[in-house]
Amino acid sequence: MDPHLLTRRRLLGLFGAAASVPILSSCGSSVGGSGGGGATGGGGGTVKVGLVVPQSGVYAALGTDMQRGWQLWLDQNGGTFGDRSVETVVADEGETPQTGVPAVQKVLQSDGVDVVVGLVNSATALGVRNVMSEARKLLIVTNAGAEDVTGAGRTPYVWRTSFTNGQISAAMGAHLAESGFSEGVYAIAPDYAAGTEVIAHFKRAFEAGGGRVVGEVKTPFGTTSDYQPFLTGIQDSGARATFCFFSGSEAITFVRQYAQFGLAGSIPLYGSGFLTEGNVLPQQGDAALGVQNTLHYSDQLDNPANKAFVDAYTTAHGEAPSCFSMATFDAANVLNRALRSATAIDGDALSAALGGIGTVDDSPRGPWTFENQTPRQHIYLRRVDNVGGKLVNAVVQDLGPQSQPAAV
Amino acid sequence: MTAVEAPAVPGGEAAVPPRAPRGRAWIVAVAVVVVLAAVPLFLAPFATTTLTRILVFALFAVSLDLLVGVTGLPSLGHAAYFGSGAYAAGWVSINVTAQAPVPLLAGVAVGAVAAALTGWITVRSAGVFFLMLTLAIGETVQQLGNAWDSVTGGANGLTGIPSVRIAGAPLANAGFTYWYVLAVFLLGFTLVRLVARSPFGAALRGIRDNEARMRAIGYPTSLYKYAVFVLAGGVAGLAGSLLAAQARLVALPDLGFATAAFALLAVVIGGAGSLWGACLGAALVIVIRDALGPSLGGHGTLVLGAVFVLVVYLLPRGAAGIRLRRRRSPS
Amino acid sequence: MLVSVLNGLAIGFLLFIVAIGLSLVFGMMDVLNLAHGALFLGGAYLGAAFSGSWGGFLAALGIAAVGGLLAGSVLSLMTGPLRRRSHLDQALLTLGVAFVVAELLVLAFGDDPLSVAAPPALDGSVTVFDAVYPAYRLVLIGVGAVLAVVVYLVVERTRVGAVVRATVADRDMVATIGIDNRLVTTAVFAVGSLLATTAGVLGGPIYGARPGLDATVLILALVVVVIGGLGSVRGALVGSLIIGQVDTLGRVLLPELASFVLFAALALVLVLRPQGLFGGPAAVGAR
């Protein structure tokens, strides 16, 4: 016999130690009743929030920003929503719905949270709609930008404090059409659902303003590290400007290579604001200088709420906040407002209360309102500038309040 | 036929110990089924949901074990058939009917057809080349899923899948969904077990151990490999239809490399060739990834990788090796 | 168009440096080292940590080389005890190691994607074929070509290379004639890993350093060695140059099929020639 073989007891120890934690700690019954397991809330003194954000995988940096934004609001407001103290349970959304959906189910069913906040991945946000409505609990999405999250098939239990993909790119489409580029823009985005939405809404707004798209390409998502083949296509198209949608590492690579291959000097680069937002900007370095983009936020916005937010955030973490921190900060803000008028902390009561909070007038992004459960908010034209040796997204122009555009 | 029966890889035959006391094996099997069936009465929803996920992934791992353990074809693209079946079941549930056998049949059919369409390329190769070809097919199918977004929903995933309906009534909660998944799992497991124990299964093990010899004594080995590839694809599609019923969401990663690799880990952890071992391996993977993972501060993969490395060293024959030892030491 | 061909060369030579180690390790030990991509990522993170100056770049190269040698020796020791078990167990062991190493790198270097500046003077762009092209990539073509020649000469023209080739061809025969091939296999594993980490430093200015890069690079390298034929230096070189062109020129010519060209090329080669372009006919059945 092989000496390495384990005894059965050791095996049971190995498997049992792992298995018993989640399974045995949660006895009860899964039959009868549709929700179950969770705390009932009522008039008690606490509200339990499940903060489901990526702690692993390619979106982990966004998850860090989101946790910081959430915590900052709580720290500034005594850790309470109204007269209820807030208890936060953080869970790892991971990279895909394969990990994100179980994480949401875990905080709902195992930790018994009253509200779920977070979610970067749109597929996860869309995939938990039925979980939330069956549990009759509220979810506030603080990033995922797919239009369907708050589109025609939305549920009253899922709200959003971030943006919609098309909201941001449509504003850029209208702006470019009236800025002398109507003769020809090239559109490039990764080949996945968000890229498709961004390009579709950009094109519709740009063409409605009399613009002409001279070329369009979708790059393989998540596996493209060298954009040279596509950059050649842009140069050959005769475009006057490029509109792109990239984020994370793809944004870094694309912007740097756009400069390295000499396009930056001849064909100005425009994009959706995630191109130069948050942690990617310092990595892009001078290659990003002059890139113009649209977003619902910039840490450079000149309003008192934002100045206070940026100061506090920078003091705590040594770097400026991103739109991801801001949207999660605002999620705490709107929950607090809703709880002032909510009769209970179940999803129905909170959803009704969120519908009545009116204009959020103390947000770092400027005033905004919920419209169909997602923000109607100002979109800003930003340009990457060097301010005192540091790259920032300077606000060039306020493009005015924008709704989630109708589906293309 | 003697060549066929010779067990060449130690432990490979562990699932079918020749001297197993038939009565006792039956008692154990019945006891396990009874305990599994009673689980929703005692466990809270999240634990039941986790167990449901384990069963779904276990059936997928069992279908892969038919290729890896029984036939000796290590696949890194088996998720392509699992995911195809899941998309088919989900699409049918949304657009046609969620009435019980229909999504299952759709999953099986699409899984098997996808395997039939791609299998003729893969079964011509073996070993690492088989690994690479299946990997390439898996990645390509995932790209197709991304491109065909009118059916699959692309990167947003196929969402809004209704609950499975049985005799007109939807499965109302985690407990009923669990029982449905358990019933189909038992069906699929029994089917694979019967195949593995049949003369056909014996021939597959012969191919695993020495394909040239099997060919020499007159077996059409390519045909056999093709048949088991399609069968494994069908069972993976069945598991996929359970995924659609349980998660009510199918997304591109369900087709991709990571899913296929985790299934392969589950098979190896359990001991390739042992069907119930694959189920244990699947349980370990799902518990770490879905139940513990959210609380590990983002280090779920680290723990899974470390556990896996340990298991490869400490359990050279996987969980099946344990049983071998227990059986032999008292006698 | 010509720029795309040139760029394909740069990517191709970088791939060759990654793939040759993978190919030789498999050819000699039958170990498909799925941790190879994680080694590349380690090099890329080192490059990112030290980027900005020539001193930093060379330091990163040096540390990556030593680290690669150590990592390769450790991997060789780890897979040794599994030699009598199936190749699948060995491959999956390295997959587990890959998960662990990639996670540890993220713990050490953070989860932000990082960019890597080319060393000063190579950071700019030059004009080639009437197009602007990054100078660093031109240098990379030269470095890759030199490395390819060196590896080729060592394997094909030296005594050590002869042992390596003989071990690839028939391991048992080499042992029978009294050569202790464990030392040779460990050395090949170490040098192969060194090339992977070095490629990580060299590739940093192109690919950056980020979580997930390990899997992307690993899959590219696997495609290269399978197309070229496992264990063959010539195969790895030709495979790298083909994939370099497929990944650039293919995307210029067929942008709407960009996601498919890589695996289409792999499937095409394997359907027509299952053992790869330069693989021996025995490879298919035996492995």
TrEMBL record, chain A:
Alphabetic keyword roster:
Signal
Q: Pfam families given for it? A: Peripla_BP_6
| Keyword ATP-binding carried by entry | no
Q: Which residues form the Leucine-binding protein domain?
A: 46-385
- The domain of life for this entry's organism is Bacteria
Family annotation (Gene3D superfamilies): 3.40.50.2300
SUPFAM superfamilies linked to this entry: Periplasmic binding protein-like I
**Record bears the keyword Signal:** yes
Q: What family is this?
A: Belongs to the leucine-binding protein family.
Annotated PANTHER family:
LEUCINE-SPECIFIC-BINDING PROTEIN, PERIPLASMIC BINDING PROTEIN OF ABC TRANSPORTER FOR NATURAL AMINO ACIDS
Its name, as the record gives it, is ABC transporter substrate-binding protein
Native species: Pseudonocardia adelaidensis
TrEMBL record, chain B:
Q: How does it sit in the membrane?
A: Multi-pass membrane protein
Which key words are in the record? Answer: Cell membrane, Membrane, Transmembrane, Transmembrane helix
Membrane-spanning ranges: 25-47, 54-73, 178-196, 223-245, 257-288, 295-315
Q: Main subcellular localization, coarse class?
A: membrane
Protein localization: Cell membrane
* Alphabetical list of PANTHER family matching this protein: ABC TRANSPORTER ATP-BINDING PROTEIN (PTHR30482:SF17), HIGH-AFFINITY BRANCHED-CHAIN AMINO ACID TRANSPORT SYSTEM PERMEASE (PTHR30482)
Question: By what name is this protein known?
Answer: Branched-chain amino acid ABC transporter permease
Q: Which organism is it from?
A: Pseudonocardia adelaidensis
UniProtKB/TrEMBL annotation, chain C:
Which InterPro entries does UniProt cross-reference here?
A: ABC_transp_permease (IPR001851), BCAA_transport_permease (IPR052157)
Q: Which Pfam families match?
A: BPD_transp_2
Topology relative to the membrane: Multi-pass membrane protein
Print the keywords alphabetically.
Amino-acid transport, Cell membrane, Membrane, Transmembrane, Transmembrane helix, Transport
Q: What is its main location?
A: membrane
Membrane-traversing stretches: 6-27, 34-51, 57-79, 91-110, 135-155, 183-203, 215-237, 249-272
* Compartments reported by the entry: Cell membrane
Q: Which family does it belong to?
A: Belongs to the binding-protein-dependent transport system permease family. LivHM subfamily.
Cross-referenced PANTHER family: ABC TRANSPORTER ATP-BINDING PROTEIN, BRANCHED-CHAIN AMINO ACID TRANSPORT SYSTEM PERMEASE PROTEIN LIVH
| Listed name of the protein | Branched-chain amino acid ABC transporter permease
Give the originating organism: Pseudonocardia adelaidensis
